[in-house]
Design goal:
With 217 residues, this protein is α+β, with helices and mostly antiparallel strands. It folds into two domains: 92 residues, Ribosomal Protein L25, Chain P; 78 residues, Ribosomal protein L25, C-terminal domain (RNA Polymerase Alpha Subunit, Chain A, domain 2). The chain is 24% helix and 40% strand. It has five helices and 13 strands. The strands form three sheets. The protein has a six-stranded mixed barrel. Strands 10-7-9-12 form a four-stranded mixed β-sheet, with no helix packed on it. A three-stranded antiparallel β-sheet has the order 8-13-11, with no helix packed on it. Part of the 50S ribosomal subunit; part of the 5S rRNA/L5/L18/L25 subcomplex. Contacts the 5S rRNA. Binds to the 5S rRNA independently of L5 and L18. GO terms for molecular function: 5S rRNA binding; structural constituent of ribosome. One of its GO terms (cellular component) is cytosolic large ribosomal subunit. This is one of the proteins that binds to the 5S RNA in the ribosome where it forms part of the central protuberance.
Length: 217
C-alpha cells in the first residue's frame, strides 16, 4: 500500500457539545497519539475523510499547522444506525520503527475438499503482525486450493513477506470438514438402529401384572 495525505485542524474544545458542533460544519473530531509527548485533539473534513477511507494505503501524512505527522488509522467510531463516522483515532509512527497491529486474513482459491462436498470452517480471520509502517499489508492471503477434506490451514502455512506474524504458528486459520449430509445420514442410521433394538426387546411381565390379567379374565 502507499501513503496518502489529510489536512487537519487543532480542536480547541472537547466534549459532546463540541463534537456535535463540528459535525454540523461537516468536520469529524479525531485525535493523534503515539510517538508524541501529548495526544493532539484535531478535526478533519468529513468528505476528505470519507474519500480516504475508500482508498488502500499504508500510512497517512496529516498536515497540521505546517507540520507533517505520519500516522496510521487505529480506530473508527461510527453511528450505530446510519454508519456516519463519529470519531477517528490516528497513531503517529516513526519511519524505520516496527509497529504491532491486527490485519485481516483473506481466504483465496477453491479447496479440493470443497469440490468434493466438504464444508469450510473459518476459525481465525485476523492476525497480529509486527511490520514497518511502509510495509503494512491491507490483508494477508491464505491460499486454500490444495486443502482436502480433513485438512487444516495453519499460521505456519502462510507466506509472510516484509512482516512478522506474532500468532502461534500452529494456530488453525481454517479447516475443511467432512460433508454434513454424511454426518446427518450416520446420525439417522444410528437412531433407526436404536429404535429397532428397542422394538425387539422382550416385554417383562411381573407377577403383579399376571394377577391383574387373571382377575380381569
Amino acid at each position: 500500500m502507499t501513503e496518502t495525505k489529510l489536512v487537519a485542524e487543532k480542536r480547541a474544545g472537547r466534549g459532546k457539545a463540541e463534537a456535535k458542533r463540528m459535525r454540523r460544519t461537516k468536520r469529524v473530531p479525531a485525535i493523534i497519539y503515539g510517538e508524541i509527548k501529548e495526544p493532539i485533539p484535531i478535526s478533519v473534513d468529513a468528505h476528505e475523510l470519507d474519500l480516504l477511507l475508500k482508498k488502500s494505503y499504508s500510512t497517512i501524512d496529516i498536515e497540521l499547522d505546517s507540520k507533517k505527522h505520519q500516522v496510521i488509522l487505529r480506530d473508527i467510531q461510527r453511528h450505530p444506525v446510519n454508519d456516519t463516522v463519529l470519531h477517528v483515532d490516528f497513531m503517529q509512527v516513526k519511519k524505520g520503527h516496527k509497529i504491532t497491529m491486527t490485519v485481516p486474513v483473506h481466504f483465496e482459491g477453491e479447496a479440493i475438499g470443497l469440490k468434493q462436498g466438504g464444508v469450510m470452517d473459518e476459525v481465525k480471520r485476523e492476525l497480529e503482525i509486527a511490520v514497518l509502517p511502509k510495509d503494512i499489508p491491507e490483508y494477508i492471503v491464505a491460499n486454500i486450493e490444495n486443502l482436502n477434506v480433513g485438512d487444516a490451514f495453519r499460521v505456519k502455512d502462510l507466506e509472510a513477506v516484509n512482516f512478522e506474524i506474532l500468532d502461534d504458528p500452529e494456530d488453525v486459520l481454517c479447516r475443511i470438514e467432512a460433508p454434513r449430509v454424511i454426518a446427518t445420514e450416520a446420525e439417522g442410521a444410528e437412531e433407526e438402529a436404536m429404535a429397532e433394538e428397542e422394538a425387539t426387546e422382550p416385554e417383562v411381565i411381573t407377577a403383579k401384572d399376571k394377577e391383574e390379567g387373571e382377575s380381569e379374565g
